[in-house]
Specification:
9 helices, Rossmann fold, five-stranded parallel β-sheet, 46% helix, 175 residues
Length: 175
């Protein structure tokens, strides 16, 4: 699949980290590139991520809300059995003490069907499936299900995912 055909499902951690490390006011080319992907319907958030992000009235929430028509993708209800399977296989993917719906299992289930590359700022764990870890990482679950993803490696920087993403998009001049 060529770069011009790839689609990306971005999670809230990636959107927030992009604004932290590449703020719109300082890196307009980054956000112009993201806008172009959104307009081409090649960068999206599933509705669960959309709901997480727009609840905050901050730069990221306003940016996503302003692009609602092109960026928001409804999670298909027929994927609920796959979502349940993911949670059964990785019960630590969600926090059962959190009353809000959590997007990670939905992101993986949807990417399995759409073929999207998951973009996340989560750092890969040093030991996959470590029983002592409190929360399972999205990158581990993506790897388990062979879902392509761009995330931070165990020894990478907090914005390593962004550098991989920019490289994949051919975005070399960030000024």
């Amino acid at each position: 699949m060529s770069v011009s055909e790839k689609i990306y499902s971005i999670d809230s951690s990636a959107l927030i980290s992009l604004e932290v490390f590449y703020p719109q006011r300082l890196f307009p080319k980054v956000w112009d590139a993201l806008d172009a992907l959104v307009s081409a319907k090649r960068l999206y958030v599933i509705d669960k991520v959309y709901d997480e992000v727009v609840t905050k009235d901050d730069v990221v929430g306003r940016w996503v809300k302003a692009r609602r028509v092109n960026i928001k993708r409804k999670f298909p209800n027929n994927l609920m059995p796959k979502t349940y399977e993911i949670v059964r296989t990785f019960p630590k993917l969600i926090d059962y003490n959190n009353s809000r719906e959590q997007a990670d299992p939905y992101i993986v289930a949807e990417a399995l069907i759409s073929g999207a590359i998951v973009v996340t700022a989560e750092q890969a764990p040093t030991l996959p499936l470590d029983p002592k870890r409190k929360k399972e990482k999205l990158t581990t679950v993506c790897s388990h299900y062979s879902v392509a993803h761009l995330g931070n490696s165990t020894r990478g920087t907090q914005n390593e995912f962004a550098i991989k993403f920019f490289d994949e998009l051919g975005l070399t001049d960030l000024g």
